[in-house]
Amino acid sequence: MKNARLRLLSYIVIAYMLMAFAWWSILLFTKNQDAFEAKQELVDLLIASEAQFNGQNTAVYKVLIAERAALEDKYRMQEWMILGEALVFIVILIAGVYLIDRGYRKEVQIARQRRNFLLSITHELKSPIASIQLILETFLKRDLNRPAIAKFSANALKETKRLYTLVNDLLLSAKLEEAYQLNAEEIDVSFLLNDLVTELEEKYTNAKFELSETTDIPNISGDLSGLTSVFLNLLENAIKYSKESANIKIDLHTESENICVKIADQGIGIPDREKKMVFQKFYRIGSEDTRSTKGTGLGLYIVQQIVKAHQGNIKILDNQPQGTIMQIQLPLNLRHEKVSTAFRKPVPA
User: Fold this and answer.
1) pLDDT digit string (tens) for 59-105?
2) Burial bucket for residue 71 (CB in 10 Å: 0-12, 13-18, 19+)
3) Distance CA 215, CA 254 (A)
4) Which of 260-264, 296-300, 334-338 has the lowest mean pLDDT?
């Protein structure tokens, strides 16, 4: 509320400055015209007097005529100077207002993102910690049988993994800004995607995955942990923002000198005005007070930065009839000094 009042006050001051400048410009034009007319009348009187008493062929008469023409030229030049200065002032003022307004909007957006991040990270950290604490208290207070212990232990491990993933995302996002380096390996993207789909099918039993790929997909050089994070983030987002029974389609093929991966869902979609903004750090669509989905706003930021580090690109497309398509292109000719064979597809014996 306070910022809105300050913004309104700044607009009032700017409007006052514009009106004051318009008034002074009109006044300056009027004074310049009055001075010109007074000088012109004086010169006209001198010309008339010279012509009456000495004729029009005298040197004085010719000088007075030349002075009258010079006076008119000077007046026109002063008019253009006033007009030019007015236009320059208006342009500078409009540019200043635009920059101030843009800076204000950016600050408001950053403040909103920080608030949303603090709310979401608090919730994301609090939930697994509370679950683990409850499980440990249950172990201490109750004499459980072996199946119950196994069930609670599995839940605790699940929450611990969730907590580890969250902390790892926070560390990775900080590393991406300063010291992220690719640990290059020769990776079979087809094998990696199939492995992730198998893992997610066990985790999300209601989700359905359909992986289609062309034959002879070549291996690429890339960072295994980074690309795993990229595809895992996109696949889990596709599930998160879909309906109860998510239907995820994955297309893997080559395009020219690139490997192209498309992950399509039939979820809520992303509005056009938000498609570039969702890659900003901590940015999430909507307000944290009313949002039902979990997250910290780091996932797509991490995805984009890792894809850029691989000299690739990522695009957000609209799926039909609804949903989103995340398209990633990774170059086949990426070369690194350090290349291992840690994640190649096993060769049949």
Assistant:
1) 877 887 888 888 888 888 888 887 888 788 888 878 887 887 788 77
2) middle
3) 10
4) 334-338
Helix (H, G, I), strand (E, B) or coil at 250: strand
Dihedral angle computed from the Cα positions of residues 106, 111, 117 and 122, in that order, rounded to the nearest 10 degrees: 180
331 φ, ψ to 5°? -70, 145
- Average pLDDT over the chain reads 80
| Bridge partners for 211 per DSSP | 250
Buried b (16+ CB within 10 A) or exposed e, 200-228: beeebeebebeeebeeebebbbbbbebbb
**Which region, left, alpha or beta, applies to residue 340 given φ > 0 means left and ψ of -120 to 50 means alpha?**
beta
Cα–Cα dist 212/190, whole Å: 10
Angle between helix axes 299-309 and 224-240 (nearest 10 degrees) is 140
- Pairwise CA distance, residues 71 & 39, whole Å: 8
286: confidence class by pLDDT, cuts 50, 70, 90: low
